[in-house]
Amino acid sequence: MTGYYIHNGKSMRLQTLFSNALNYDWFNQSIFISNPLLTSSLVIVHHSIIPIIVKTASSDNSDKRFGYGDDFPLIFP
C-alpha cells in the first residue's frame, strides 16, 4: 500500500507496512456515530503511526517534525 502525506502543500510518497492503513477522515466519518469509543482509540493510533512512517520514509536524514493542524494523511491502495 502506498500513502501520500501532504505537508504544507508538498506531497511525500510513503511506503507503509500497515495493510490496514486508513484514510482517517473517511473512516472517522463512518464509524464515529456507531462507536465513539473505538473512534477515540483510532485517533491515538493514527497520531502515533503517521509520524513514525514520515520519519522513516524521509528522503534525507534531517529531523522533520509535523504538526497535525495543517497536515493530513491520504492513503491509497
UniProtKB/TrEMBL annotation:
Name of the protein this chain belongs to: Uncharacterized protein
